[in-house]
Design brief:
The chain has helices at 4-17, 22-35, 51-59, 145-156, 168-175, 190-197, 199-202, 231-244, 257-264, 270-280, 284-290, 294-300, 306-330, 336-347, 349-361, 364-382, 386-401, 406-418, 426-437, 441-444, 452-472, 476-497; strands at 39-45, 76-80, 85-90, 95-98, 117-124, 132-136, 179-184, 213-217, 252-254. By secondary structure, it is α/β, with parallel strands linked by helices. It has 4 domains: 1-36 and 363-401; 40-256, 3-Layer(aba) Sandwich (Rossmann fold), CATH 3.40.50; 267-347, no CATH class; 405-497, no CATH class. Strands 4-3-5-2-6-1-7-8-9 form a 9-stranded mixed beta sheet. Strand 8 (213-217), helix 8 and strand 9 form a beta-alpha-beta unit. The protein starts with a helix and ends with a helix. Bound molecules: guanosine-5'-diphosphate and magnesium ion (MG). Residues 45, 47-53, 66, 68, 139, 218-219, 221-222, 256-258, 317 line the site of guanosine-5'-diphosphate.
Length: 498
């Protein structure tokens, strides 16, 4: 499952582990083990942004609490396992197992004070977790100014964007993620951007950048009133936000998380469909009225019982209900399964899944290898034994000389440019980003129909351009980046000739 880059870092860890002292050896084994695990994605964002809802959609099960009053203050990690299991991991290292509650969700009461909890470790038999470990985080609280100030302080000391009440253990659990999905709603606020950027320092080499961070514009159904279609507003807004956040996330994908969750978790039943059908039979004027607001729906949709009304609101909200009613009006016999499929399509979730795949999954080898190398470099710097330090540093350097590892230098350089720490003209930046994030020479060189010869010529020309830029271009930082790009295009030319 792991790619060639992470595999060779893992081999290096194994080899070195027997040659260094016990302390460093133990850490090397930890890094190696981690390389064999699925990519770890943290879901970050402010309180009530819809993070846990999105987590459930990604897992395909409603396991994370999203109840209205719910306000989880702990980090929860969801990973694949052969049995469903919830372990509360305490800060003193103690573990306490809990059963899922009657609804199959993590119990709201953990039985341990939140202040003592490091994080909650959940293993599930969900197939979707085989390739992705998901870390749900509490939100960055910001309405309360005191908490906000403390959150900022926490951000200042380069932890991650979450509530200041979070302890170091859970902060570490989030910082250990190799990629981040940042969920926000409506206008992107200054503290959103700051919080997102705070990830940057947390994992050194490949911290939050367009390389490993994706933005999700959540709850877009709440942009317009009632059951109105939010997409004509949501799509251009997401594009604007994408431009605003271009230095921090690779894309901003709009989504109705609630509909994705309901659809992907199989929450909608045949009875729900029948209830919707009853509503669909109402006269148009009355329908318009009950779909105007949640309060009107509660007080006027009396062909249904109170419980059924709440259930539909909770699972679909007004836009989902209105969408389902329109489907049923046009096609009264549509099955529950087909209705669910259309709801998921209307949620925007398929595009999010596709983008996740594109952004993270195929890059995950480089992301993980980069993460591991950053850990190794840190280990080489901190190990007490001087000989161990030397050995580790030497091993990392040898590995980086392998041409395959040039990919990591490229990602690192592209990240510096993309985040603005090394400014560069847009065209150069874009070419570097393409080179760093793809293996397809036609796409990198923007020659979709070219043959091998033409590609090789173009790659050599690009290499030359970057060499000139390295010599004659701007400052020393730009020059270093340009040298990395120069070598990258040189290697690309060799690759297409083979
Ligand atoms: N209408 C609507 N409500 C949503 C959506 N996503 C989440 N919610 C609701 O918003 C509330 C907070 O969501 P939650 O996922 O718990 O937010 P978190 O605090 O970021 O984890 C819950 O009541 C969700 O049902 C959405 O896309 N549309
Ligand atoms: Mg939550």
């Amino acid at each position: 499952m792991s790619g060639p880059l992470s595999a060779s870092v893992a081999t290096l860890c194994d080899e070195m582990a027997s040659r260094v002292g016990a302390e460093a050896g133990h850490q090397l084994i930890q890094i190696r083990d981690r390389l064999g695990e699925p990519l770890r994605v943290a879901i970050a964002g402010r309180l009530k942004a819809g993070k846990s809802t999105l987590v459930n959609a990604l897992i395909g099960r409603r396991v994370a609490q999203t109840a209205v009053g719910e306000c989880t203050r702990v980090v929860t990690r969801f990973r694949y396992g052969t049995a469903d299991r919830v372990d509360v991991v305490c800060r003193d290292g103690q573990r306490k197992s809990l059963p899922l509650d009657d609804d199959g969700m993590i119990p709201q009461r953990l039985g341990v004070p939140a202040s003592r909890v490091a994080f909650v470790d959940v293993t599930l038999t969900s197939e979707k977790l085989r390739e992705l470990t998901v870390v749900d985080t509490p939100g960055l609280a910001s309405t309360d100014t005191v908490v906000s100030a403390r959150a900022e302080e926490a951000v200042g000391v380069s932890t991650a964007p979450f509530d200041a009440d979070i302890d170091a253990d859970s902060a570490g659990e989030v910082a250990a993620a190799e990629a981040v999905v940042y969920v926000f709603t409506q206008a992107v606020r200054a503290d959103d951007v700051r919080a997102l950027e705070a990830f940057r320092d947390a994992s050194a080499r490949l911290a939050s950048s367009p390389i490993n961070a994706l933005g999700v514009f959540g709850k877009v159904d709440t942009l317009v009133g009632g059951a109105g279609d939010p997409w004509p507003v949501a799509a251009p807004l997401a594009e604007q936000q994408g431009a605003l956040l271009a230095r921090t996330v690779s894309d901003v994908v709009p989504v109705v998380g609630l509909l994705a969750e309901t659809g992907e978790s199989g929450r909608l039943t045949g009875a729900d469909r029948d209830a919707l059908k009853q509503l669909a039979a109402l006269p148009a004027g009355q329908l318009k009225l009950i779909l105007a607001s949640a309060d009107l729906f509660r007080s006027r949709a009396t062909v249904l019982g109170a419980e059924q009304r709440e259930r539909l609101l909770g699972a679909l909200d007004l836009y989902g209900i209105g969408f389902a009613l329109a489907q049923l009006a046009a096609e009264p016999d549509v099955s529950t399964g087909e209705l669910v499929r259309r709801l998921v399509a209307a949620s925007g979730f398929p595009r999010l899944q596709h983008t996740l795949q594109e952004t993270f999954r195929w890059r995950s080898d480089a992301i993980k290898a980069g993460w591991a190398l950053a850990r190794l470099e840190r280990l080489a710097g901190h190990t007490r034994d001087e000989n161990d330090r030397e050995r580790l540093r030497g091993a990392v350097e040898r590995l980086l000389r392998d041409p395959a590892y040039h990919r990591l230098r490229l990602l690192d350089a592209a990240q510096r440019v993309a985040t603005g720490s090394v400014p560069m003209p847009m065209q150069w930046e874009q070419e570097l980003t393409r080179l760093a994030t793809s293996e397809d020479p036609r796409w990198i060189l923007r020659l979709p129909d070219a043959g091998a010869d033409e590609l090789a010529t173009a790659a050599v020309a690009a290499a030359n351009r970057w060499r000139v830029y390295a010599v004659a271009g701007a400052g020393p930082a730009q020059s270093r980046v340009a040298q990395v790009a120069h070598r990258g295009f040189h290697l690309l030319a060799q690759q297409v000739r083979r």
